């Protein structure tokens, strides 16, 4: 039937709705309900894989439409139920997916190899270990342990529930382990911060693909093992694997953390030479690299070349301006961001406040801080308060800084009181410095830095008796650790 082909060719949910309406007005649907409704539901599921389609409509609208199709199908089969469960997992509605699965069970319909991976995915979204274990027992009961797709889903659900040892037990007991099995298990180890075990499994794999390499590189980068991430990426390139965006962004992040500008440029050149499409995800990694390595103008050029910037791309650029002290430029870009309809988040405002702090833009920072919740609906967190307290104190507005901290929901954290203490050191305000130091010592007694700051304040104000006392206090506090500073510079290409 040409109408079925027409449905399959739909590129958007809007088009699907139009064809659906056409099947009703042309009186085709009443004559062929099963074939038309099934293909409508299947095509709808495929369209949900596109982010643009999901962004256009609310989840409630999409689930309502899917249920209306499902409820119109006479005598739905296991395939139909599986499709509906898949739709709800794609829309992150795991409880609804579970209810549909229970309806399937109550109707005594036959379960198949597609049912359990789908409902196990819903279980992963719910982070329910008891549900995962119950489903595992049913997988065993109905003889689906021989299916690698089901086994891989079990490995993932146990890993998501922080039961990586159980996941590994399932992995070892699997009669047929494919490359996906290894990748899922390595990802489980990585997400549970067991990098050594992930690397052991990586090294013993009979074969690897781009996902394997990307997962391992991302694990190293996220664990701050940046040199290992860079070395593994170079090994991957040497073996002529094509890195995916996860590997590329992860190695760019590692380069940014190490200050390895030349290695980062090599990665950027690799992207250009191989014609890899630079999407917002990759652009964010490149902007972050160049900004952190001191090349803010190259970061800006890279940023401007991106046509589909998201909030993360904007944040990377704003933070780049902040760390380079370009407060006025930062505020201009923040206005552009809002003007282009990008909703700022907590990271955005932290970057703006840091940039204002570095540039001494106190009035502008006050305005942004005040508008965070009232205008933009973004909740203030401890770091936002800490940044404001630090900036006010450095500007000599000690009392205002203290009042701000007292107004914090939790009464002030170590960042806020530490910022106030730093301002007191600059402006020689001994009395409030004592109060701030006492707060820091109570919140974080192992912080030895507060003793050093107070010693400097007492020395600068020639309060020698207090200087002796604070040094004795440091010696008596066995929990306190001295904070040592480190720096890294490249002397030559070796």
Automatic annotation (TrEMBL):
GO MF annotation list: RNA binding
Domain of life from the UniProt record: Eukaryota
Positions of PPR repeats: 178-212, 310-344
Gene Ontology terms describing biological process: RNA modification
Keyword entries, A-Z: Repeat
InterPro entries in the cross-refs: E_motif, PPR_At4g14850-like_plant, PPR_rpt, TPR-like_helical_dom_sf
Name of the molecule in the record: PPR containing plant-like protein
Originating organism: Medicago truncatula (Barrel medic)
